[in-house]
Write a structure and sequence with these properties.
The protein is of the alpha+beta class. 32% of the residues lie in helices and 30% in strands. It has 6 helices and 8 strands, in the order E-E-H-H-H-E-E-E-H-E-H-E-E-H. Strands 1-2-3-4-5-6-8-7 form an 8-stranded mixed sheet, with helices on both faces. Helix 1 crosses helix 3. The chain is globular. The relative contact order is 0.15.
């Protein structure tokens, strides 16, 4: 499955993307914001592509002007999500390489995946979260219509072995439809 926006192609990850993934995923600021440890090698990035990024509805974010992936966005369902979900709900996670922050690409990708979740997956609500201090992620979510729902304080985050505070936001299909009509 591929999704296309004005400036982006959202497509499945390929094993040949390992070098590009490693180039951005080794950056400590990316991993910390997304909730995982920086990648230590291209081989680790290849393993992540094979074992994690091969999940359904996981997309490489490829700017058309660049031609290579510089981030990732996915919808998680059921037990794969970080928050409890009803059967007709999903949770979106995302990250973008540091050189591409502040260009509006993540908001564009998030809007496309939200539309996909509601129109093609039939979801009624989509959740998204960010860790305390990740103001960029909060801003992207709010630009796309997500609203604050609750806080999870002092949770043990297994991928990093740290205790975190996570702010959980959501958007309903009705709210997304209303936002699209106003745009």
């Amino acid at each position: 499955m591929e999704l296309e926006t004005e400036r982006l192609l959202l497509r499945p990850w390929r094993e040949t993307d390992a070098a590009n993934l490693y180039a951005f995923a080794r950056e400590p600021a990316v991993g910390k914001a997304a909730g995982w440890r920086p990648h230590c090698s291209e081989a680790e990035s290849l393993r992540v592509i094979r074992e994690v990024f091969s999940a359904p509805d996981t997309f490489a974010i490829v700017p058309k002007s660049r031609g290579f992936p510089c981030g990732c966005i996915n919808i998680m369902y059921g037990p794969d999500a970080n928050v409890p979900l009803a059967p007709d709900e999903g949770e979106i996670g995302f990250w973008l390489g540091v050189p591409f922050w502040g260009q509006g690409w993540m908001s564009e990708a998030l809007r496309a995946v939200v539309r996909y979740g509601f129109s093609r997956r039939g979801l009624s609500r989509i959740w998204c979260a960010y860790f305390a201090g990740n103001h960029g992620s909060r801003r992207v979510q709010e630009k796309c219509g997500f609203v604050f729902h609750h806080v999870l304080r002092d949770i043990f985050w297994k991928p990093t072995g740290e205790v975190q505070t996570m702010y959980v936001q959501a958007i309903s299909r009705d709210a997304e439809s209303a936002a699209e009509e106003q745009a």
